[in-house]
Structures are given as structure tokens and as C-alpha cells.
Design brief:
It is a single chain. This protein has 171 residues and is α+β, with helices and mostly antiparallel strands. The protein contains two helices and nine strands, in the order αβββββββββα. The chain folds into two domains: 67 residues; 93 residues, Immunoglobulin-like, CATH 2.60.40. It has a five-stranded antiparallel β-sheet, with no helix packed on it.
Length: 171
């Protein structure tokens, strides 16, 4: 005897839901939240986004938020000066292993233009062993979802058996 269409739809919906949830969870397990640094002065706003050992810096004027492209930017991090490379999109990039070191560090963006020199100060906060804890929690969450869907499938299986038994006694 074949399963009723409603039960087949419930099975299909459960399988699709489980696949979508597991895919989203696996994608979330590898995603890493970048660290953001903001520094202001009277004339400029510098926003640095750190991902691993690379920082992308967006420098803009504080008055009208227009990007600043005609400047030389140097980043002083943990006592060492690192020149930033100007990109074609108007941003600046910096690559150094100092960005991956755990702990709090003072960051100074030194902006040099024809009109003068300005210094913007911010703070970088890198969590110690953040990646290890994130991976452990992601794996735990993934297994929780697997167990959750196993229970749901078990419930649907028992429901279908009970329904078949009821149909057999009614006939």
C-alpha cells in the first residue's frame, strides 16, 4: 500500500528542511566575523576591517564622507610602522602578521597629504583562541541539528506506522 500524498509531502518537506538547515549551519561554521577598527580626527574617518593578516582601510573626510584617495597612509601597530598600499577602488590595504596576534593593541593611522599630516588613533581587539572556540561550538551546534532531525524523522516514522495500523484495522 502506498503512502498518502500528505505523508509523502511531509517527508519531502522534512528532508528539504533538514538539508537546508545543515547547509546553512555548515556555511556558518566556516564564516568568520571580521574585526572592525574605527578612528576619527577633526578632518578624517578611517575604518579598518581586519580579516586574518590583512586590513582593508577606507579613509574618508569627516565633513562629507567623501573618500580620500590622494593620501599616503601608514599604520603604526604594536610599535611598528607599516605602509598601506593604495588600491584602485580608493581603499588602502595592509598585510602583516601583527594583525593576527591575540590581545588589544593601539592602532594609529598616519595620513599624509599635501595639506599636512594627521594622526587617527583606534584600538584593535583580537580574541585569543577565538577560532578554536568557534569551531568547537559550530560542531556542537551541527550535531544538535542532526539529533533534532533524527527525532523528527523518528516521530514521522512512528506516525506513519500508527496510521497504517489504523487503516488496516478499519478496513
Amino acid at each position: 500500500m502506498s503512502k498518502p500524498p500528505a505523508l509523502r509531502r511531509a517527508y519531502a518537506l522534512a528532508v528539504l528542511s533538514m538539508a537546508a538547515t545543515l547547509a546553512a549551519e555548515c556555511a556558518g561554521a566556516t564564516a568568520e566575523t571580521p574585526v572592525r577598527i574605527e578612528a576619527r580626527s577633526a578632518d578624517f574617518l578611517a575604518v579598518g576591517v581586519v580579516h586574518d593578516d590583512r586590513m582593508t582601510i577606507h579613509l574618508s573626510r569627516a565633513i562629507d564622507n567623501a573618500p580620500v584617495r590622494d593620501a599616503a597612509v601608514t599604520v603604526v601597530l604594536r610599535g611598528a610602522a607599516h605602509p598601506a598600499t593604495a588600491e584602485t577602488d580608493g581603499s588602502f590595504t595592509l598585510r602583516t602578521k601583527d594583525l593576527t596576534l591575540p590581545g588589544t593593541a593601539a592602532v594609529e593611522f598616519q595620513v599624509v597629504q599635501a595639506a599636512g599630516r594627521e594622526s587617527l588613533k583606534g584600538t584593535l581587539q583580537v580574541a585569543a583562541d577565538a577560532d578554536l572556540r568557534q569551531d568547537k561550538n559550530s560542531a556542537r551546534q551541527l550535531w544538535w541539528w542532526v539529533l533534532n532531525f533524527a527525532v523528527c524523522f523518528g516521530f514521522l516514522w512512528l506516525y506513519s506506522r500508527r496510521r497504517k495500523a489504523r487503516e488496516g484495522t478499519d478496513a
